[in-house]
UniProtKB/TrEMBL annotation:
Transmembrane segments: 59-78, 84-107, 119-137, 143-163, 184-207, 219-238, 269-290, 310-330, 339-357, 363-380, 401-426, 432-451
Cited PANTHER family: ALPHA-KETOGLUTARATE PERMEASE (PTHR43528:SF1)
Any one Pfam family match given in the protein's UniProt record, by short name: MFS_1
Membrane topology reported for the UniProt record: Multi-pass membrane protein
Coiled coil residues, start to end: none
Protein name: Putative proline/betaine transporter
Location, primary (coarse class): membrane
One GO CC term on file: plasma membrane
Record keywords: Cell membrane, Membrane, Symport, Transmembrane, Transmembrane helix, Transport
Domain Major facilitator superfamily (MFS) profile: 47-458
An annotated Gene Ontology molecular function: symporter activity
Record-stated family: Belongs to the major facilitator superfamily. Metabolite:H+ Symporter (MHS) family (TC 2.A.1.6) family.
Amino acid sequence: MRKVTKSPPPHDEMLQPSLHGNGAAASGHEASQSEAADGQRNILRRVVAASFIGNFVEWFDYAVYGYLAITISAVFFPESVGSAALLGTFAVFAVSFIVRPLGGFIWGHIGDKFGRRTSLSISIIIMSFATFAVGLLPSFDMVGYFAPVLLLVVRLVQGFSAAGEYAGASAFLVEYAPPRRRGLFAAVVPASTATGLLLGSLIAALLFGILSTGQMESWGWRLPFFLAAPMGLIGRYIRTKLEDTPAFRELAQDDDVVKAPVLSMFRDYWRPLVIAMCAVLLNAVGFYVVLSYMPTYLTTELGFGETESFIATTIALLTYVGFIFITGLASDLIGRKRMLIAAAVVFILFTVPAFMLLGVGNFAVVVIIEVLLGAMLTLNDGTLPSFLAEMFPTKIRYSGFAVSFNMSNALFGGTAPFMATLLIGVTHSRLAPGWYLMLAAVVCLAAVLCAKETSHEPLRET
């Protein structure tokens, strides 16, 4: 028989003064309440900081590869020319996503059986040292075809590590958050992801601005990867200073931890798993097309310089981080389902026209379009972490989130830059990425329409 546990009181109720007692007793009680509230706020601040920094490090490491794709293609695929070299680079980018479903199963199992903190502390170390290793790899000129093979191996390790990060950080925040602010707290995850991309974009723009092509291909491309190890150690240190989430500790105390969470997920929660996988599609394609592939698109397809392309994407990322918290808060107020439906509809209506306007050749127009596409994406991305975390009960939350998120990203997210480049080559249309993104929005809309609203449900019983 399932245990029914009462959700903790809303955070704002915890802060209200007691109405019982008077005099010294009342003052003492109010002081005790105030200290408890201060302690709770301090814990929440540390949780937010740990989740932000850890996720930021993971996704800075992972995104630098995309921003340096053109240089990496010259270093590791010099015998290929033009789009063929770029396709080789993006193929390695896509292949690294193959291990993400496997990573989702393993990190989900660890997170649901041994705790969220354990899983997150291990994954950040693996990602940081794998990224550091990229900067040490020999070029094609040094070791021939052995160079891209080594690059592929290290990218596979990165993909395995990244599989546990987004899901784990989201579950961690949602399970710590006040009940009425889960959407806002979970929005920290995509915000930190975008901040990691933002730093990667700034560093890439700086390197392309001050170094020659020869210097970039010789040694400049390695520099961002060397930042990974020290940042990863800082992120892990912060995470190990926190307790695991109240929801998981309660689960462990009640002896409700599932021995095989992945098996339980497939057996008892296959329907929300399928809905979640389809709902992730817009995020998977949109994130990598709008925020990762776009500098390459502007340079190779529209003829902008590398520095201009990175400046446009950097501005879009800055505004994305600001919008993401607004949409996370909005999902708390009007519901996850309405926000995700709105996101899918605007992408269906406006994506292709936006790509048409990108081709006008005016840099100011390009910046405006990128900012608008990023704002549209936040309607989905600011809502998705809390939506996915709330779809599954605590005992399999990490597994359900990690498997659904990573399956969609493996099939459609990691392949998005490759597919965009391939579709442009096949159709001879620069609008092809826009049509591809619109199709992802259609699938997402159909899935979300089948989902239940979860924003006001008690977390343990969702």
